[in-house]
Amino acid sequence: MPDFRLYNTLTRHIEPFAPADGTTVRMYTCGPTVYNPAHLGNFRTFLFEDLMRRTLALRGWRVHQVMNLTDVDDKIIKRAHEQGKSIVEVTGPVIAAFHADRVFLRIQAAEAYPRATDFIPQMIALVQRLIDRGVAYQAEDGSVYFAISKFPSYGRLSRLDTREIKSGARVIQDDYSKENAQDFALWKAAKQEDEAAGAAWDSPWGRGRPGWHLECSAMAMDLLGETLDLHCGAVDLIFPHHEDEIAQSEAATGKTFSHVWCHGAFLLTEGAKMAKRVGNVSTVQGLREERISSAAIRHFVFNTHYRKELNLSDEALEASRQAVRRIGDFADRLGSETTLTLGGTPELARAADVAVELAEAALFDDLNAPEALAALFDFIRAANAELDRRGGDRSAVERARAALTRIDSVLDIVPGREAPDDGLVAWVEERLAARKAARQARNFADADRIRAELVGRGVVIEDSSAGTTWKVV
Ligand code: AMP
Ligand code: ZN
Question: What are the residue ranges of CATH 3.40.50.620 in the chain?
Fold first, then answer.
């Protein structure tokens, strides 16, 4: 079996990786906070995780991925309060939009999308366990905090200098800086605002709600067990979110929470992190309206290694648009009946094998998608030249098709496979028949008019000796 290696944030090294049970990778990925539609920066991270799950599957493992939906937190309650709504009213439409964007971007569905509000009893049980073990306490403000001084390895993931730890000082916000490493809130005493937004529950410590970090620990351990194979997110989650997840989980169980931690780098706009609070966000919906395909977006994201920062620009998107057009033309050529009839050469078959070997080696080496893409484009160049030679061997063409399918099972960047709806198919077929009749009657003006009509609806046709084919662009 080929090596498989991942960069582990815990050790700061690229290390061999395999699931503990040898067959199924139990993977937790921190999902969106659903108060606002996710932006392309968030989706860069979700695409990195899609690349991860598809690469793990290519390697032959089963994947059990859990992605939580944070549907109760400080930001959601603030939004609900501003709009005079309950948190459910705020989060419902955002969750629907998240899935629509996810499907558009061809991000495979995780095995579970738990919502934090469905796991309140598990969260309360986890807090109780931490209190029983003496690492959590209820403070005068009614909230329950984690005592970081009672957990000696606190700060291991983020390499926090232990001298920075301020024993006994407390922080109630979910987001805070390393400079403020303090006892953090597990369970927050309910305020009037929380009650009004439907974000308060009964607990042994009075009415309250979970802290963000606690949500992930409780859902991950409930759905995947106390030790995960892999935990992912973007780099901004290393501290405090993931540091606090480790502290809560390991202090409760005494076991390793996750063997490996992987973090994706940011998407930037003009050099600054794309973020809602900076106001420099691009949404998936916006890109769709600009008619940028999911294939082009995937190419743009995967053309930079996930651990490198990536700058969004019109030029980069345009380059990706052209790159996937090239891939699409190649897929069409390989897929056509004519190509199969003309056949390939032994060199074509060899190029296909080399492409698969190089792409797999790249992906299995810490998800090196840019190198896999380079292997794919080398293949396209070589294969097009070989196909021009019409070598006569059908099996060589089939081998080339299989190679493209295998590489694309991870990258999923062949454009235009969004199946046209049945109504469109029927209309196109009717128009093509009419055009054929017009041409046979040598009525070329009518034939040209029908072609223009088709183009007007995004349908491009191509005539060859084998007949007329069409595609939606
Ligand atoms: P949030 O909805 O804020 O909880 O974020 C969801 C995911 O997107 C988290 O893993 C974040 O770390 C990640 N994220 C936020 N902004 C960016 C960005 N500009 N680039 C990449 N990932 C991001
Ligand atoms: Zn999380």
Answer: 5-269
Question: 32 — phi, psi (to 5°)?
Answer: -75, 150
pLDDT tens, position by position, 139-156: 999 999 999 999 999 999
Instruction: Give the CATH number of domain 5-269.
Output: 3.40.50.620
Tokens of 220: 């991950």
Least confident of 209-218, 286-295, 361-370: 286-295
Mean pLDDT of 235-246: 97
CATH placement of domain 310-411:
1.20.120
**Ligand 1 touching residue 30 (CB < 6 A):** yes
Enter the DSSP assignment of 35.
T
189 sits in which H/E element: strand 183-189
Buried/exposed code over 254-292 (b: 16+ C-beta within 10 A; e: otherwise): eeebbbbbbbbbbbbbeeebbbbeeebbbbbeebbeeeb
CA distance 211 to 209: 7
Listed residue (241, 221, 233, 214) closest to 158, CA to CA = 241
Total-model pTM: 0.88
Interval 68-86: pLDDT, tens: 999 999 999 999 999 999 9
Q: Is 186 helix (H, G, I), strand (E, B) or coil?
A: strand
- Give tens-digit pLDDT for 181-222: 899 999 999 999 999 999 999 999 999 999 999 999 999 999
Residue intervals of the chain classified under CATH 1.20.120 are 310-411
pLDDT at position 42 = 97
CA of residue 216 to ligand 2 center, whole Å: 5
Work out which ligand 1 atom sits closest to the CA atom of 232. 10
C-beta of 7 in contact with ligand 1 (< 6 A): no
Check if 266 has its Cβ closer than 6 Å to any atom of ligand 1. yes
Q: Is 41 in the pocket of ligand 1 (CB under 6 A)?
A: yes
Q: Which of 9, 35, 45 to probe ligand 1 with, by most ligand atoms within 8 A of CB?
A: 45
Token output for 280: 């420099």
CB atoms within 5 A of ion ligand 2 belong to 30, 216
